[in-house]
Amino acid sequence: MAEATGIKEIIKPENLVYKKTRIMTDNILSYCPGCGHGTAHRILAEIIDEEGLQSESIGVSPVGCSVLLYNFLDIDWQEAAHGRAPAVATAIKRLMPEKFVFTYQGDGDLAAIGTAETIHTCNRGENILIIFINNGIYGMTGGQMAPTTLPGMKSSTSPYGRDVKIMGNPLKMTDIVATLPGTYYVTRQSVHTPANVRKTKKAMRKAIQYQRLNKGTCFVEIVSNCPSGWKMTPVQSNKWMEENMFPYYPLGDLKTPEKQPAQ
Amino acid sequence: MEKELRLMKGNEAVAEAAIRAGADGYFGYPITPQSEILEYLMGAKPYETTGMVVLQAESEIAAINMVYGGAACGKKVMTTSSSPGISLKQEGISYIAGAELPCLIVNVVRGGPGLGTIQPAQSDYFQAVKGGGHGDYHLIVLAPASVQEMADFVGLGFDLAFKYRNPVIILSDGAIGQMMEKVYLGPQKERSKEVPDWATTGKPPTRERNVITSLDLDPYAQEKFNQKLVAKYNKIRENEVRYEEFQCEDAEYLLVAYGTSARVCQKSIQIARGQGIKVGLLRPITLFPFPTKRINELSGKVKIILSVEMSAGQMVEDVLLAVGGKVPVYHFGRMGGIVTEPEEVVENLKSKIMGG
Amino acid sequence: MISCPTGTIAMAKEVNGKGYYYAYPANPDLCIGCANCAMVCPDGVITVYKTKI
After folding, report:
1. What is the Cα–Cα distance from B318 to A48, expressed in whole angstroms?
2. pTM of the predicted model as reported, rounded to 2 decimal places
3. Which of A2, A29, A235 has the CB atom closest to C43's CB atom?
4. Domain ranges within chain C, ordered by starting residue
5. In 3-state terms, what secondary structure has residue A218?
6. Which residues does chain C have within 8 Å of residue A18's beta carbon, measured at their own beta carbons?
7. What CATH class is the domain B4-203+227-239?
8. SS (H, E, C) A77-140
9. Closest approach of chain B CAs to the CA of A78, in angstroms?
10. Which CATH fold would you assign to the domain B244-355?
11. H-helix or E-strand containing C37?
12. ipTM score assigned to the predicted complex
């Protein structure tokens, strides 16, 4: 067959269509099978590579599933305390304004313990990028309820479903920060299909480019799945996410330099 | 080297000394009795002269995490607060110690526990010296007893912090923070352009990426790290003890006190010697490392040691450890924000001499 | 499987050394080099080459 001889001829640099970016280290990812974190990391790493930002980037990693983020991207990292990444990033950017500074946080980090830091950093309009991975659950600690857990959704601390009378409604942090004048670009994306991956990459690239203009905080939410926490297979979890998470957290730009949300 | 003479509040002296020491950043939050530090810095606008960043954070917690971020970039950063605010910062301080970052913290102690009072106290000794945050770590603790020392310890604190890659805390109190005295201020130092090789400044092709973290899930590696910290603290104990003695050469009784209590004791010694009691004072300047060796030596020459501290008895435990049972050790001090009076110390010492 | 438009990739019936079912090229002849698989792969293990035959 043409295959057997063909393979060696095909694997040549000029025939390359896609290869994992060199910004991703070769360390084995610590995530569960099918988790969106890996894809989100890769998009971020690709853009850092393409925009030539490796020597300018300083990332702040959270506490949560992605606590070991600093082992997967080959840039300088600081590990922050739970929820405090925006404060850490504020100091870095203020002391070294020419660097590209970003945080990468989960729903517990950003919307529970870190709510004050998130809102005040966006309110001050710090010139950083905040990446918010929202999967409606606490993955690392074993599947507990998050501030973004949907009404009726089961988790290990809401075994009969989230009761809004007791626990309140899910918090839409992205909508909240979009109303603050300090934010410049706010968007919500996902990474579960190739089409969405392309859209997310476009949105993140815009966010990184806007961040250079020093006009305010750029905020990218990525609605993602958690097969382990939701107790589904990766394929099932993506479908569940489309049917349940997206109606509550619709994808799209909430705030762009041209379009400001109604106050 | 010309020094400028000013009449300043303790809090203001800290702020001015920070600017002159070439600090890169200050992150704080208002709390009585130290809000003047933040106010002075905002008024002095050092970001226009030296480029120093001054930011009022949304909470003490945010402020200490900003210090973490700045310190991890190798910059000279500091924060100040008072007792309840320092309690909020403990997690952040533990992270800074666990990541081996240099920084300066100032605690202008007020009466506690809880919301307490706004008057001075010395009841944060345990919090500063014995831990405060979780895990095996120590802060280098400097205890000023005058406005001059408030100013001098800022530069000293930064030097020690960067020498050992450890956070340093200046344990002051509300009286020293608020009182006005003459202070000689050094000239303006240039902000350092040196970048430590461990700092996160953006990874150039010439080196591996720098990761500042205090997490290590491998227990054997973490133990090695803990041992490294233990070795560091032992080195600090050997090399950085600082104290001052006052009329100890012929003393039969010894007072041990720091900060405002030390100033009170100096007057007490005058009163006591006027009554024929030969008493001296050992004033620890570093509370960690504690002048254990010197107190042990002195305990061989005196009959009674009285630890004077505005608390329920915190430093006295370290004095007891240092003395090792050779002579009786007692504690005396007012609490609730009341400053001990010199006569009270003398009366208390006399009662111990009679009773003992 | 889902993202692949031509059915090139499928899940293996055995587990790998880490105990997980893995994706592999079951029908490599059907591959058109669109790189959808590589784009979606959370572990970033796929490299795609394409040439004119």
Report:
1. 53
2. 0.91
3. A29
4. 1-53
5. strand
6. 35, 38-39, 46-48
7. alpha beta
8. EEECCCCCHHHHHHHHHHHCCCCEEEEEEEHHHHHHHCHHHHHHHHHHCCCCEEEEEECCCECC
9. 5
10. Rossmann fold (3.40.50)
11. helix C36-40
12. 0.89
Please identify which residue in the block is written with the tokens 């007692």: B330
Distance of alpha carbon B211 from alpha carbon B194, whole angstroms: 19
Tell me the CATH number for domain A31-255.
3.40.50.970
Nearest C-alpha neighbor of A28 from the set A66, A71, A67:
A71
A window 220-259, beta carbon within 8 A of C: 235, 238
Cα separation of A91 and A212, whole Å? Answer: 17
CA atoms within 13 A on the CB side of B157: 33
- What residue has token string 């109190």? B173
Q: What is d(CA C37, CA C49) in angstroms, rounded to the nearest whole number?
A: 12
CB A25 within 8 A of CB A47: no
Angle at A83 between CA B138 and CA B161, to 5 degrees: 25
Give the full edge-to-edge strand order of the sheet including B211-212.
A252-255, A183-190, A217-223, A129-134, A100-106, A57-61, A76-79, B211-212
Q: Long-range contact list for C27-30, CB < 8 A, 24+ apart? A: C28/A3, C29/A3, C30/C6
**Chain A interface test: which of B200, B214, B218 (most A C-beta within 10 Å):** B200
Instruction: Give how far Cα A133 sits from Cα of A17, A224, A234, Å.
Output: 28, 7, 17
Q: What is the mean pLDDT of each run of 10 residues along chain A (263 residues)?
A: 58 82 89 90 93 93 92 94 95 94 94 94 95 93 92 91 92 94 94 92 92 90 93 91 93 86 56
Cα separation, B29 vs B243, whole angstroms: 31
Q: CATH 3.40.50.920: which residues of chain B?
A: 244-355
Q: State the number of CA atoms in the 13 A half-sphere of B240 facing the CB.
A: 22
Residue range B231-240, pLDDT digits in tens: 999 999 999 9
Helix (H) or strand (E) run with residue C48 in it: strand C48-49
Q: What is the DSSP letter of A155?
A: B
Alpha-carbon distance of B121 to B294, in angstroms, equals 26
Total beta-carbon pairs less than 8 A apart between chain A and chain B: 125
Q: Give the separation between CA A134 and CA A189, rounded to whole angstroms.
A: 10
Instruction: Count other Cβ atoms within 10 Å, centred on residue B22.
Output: 17
Please write the tens of the pLDDT for every residue from B274-320.
999 999 999 999 999 999 999 999 999 999 999 999 999 999 999 99
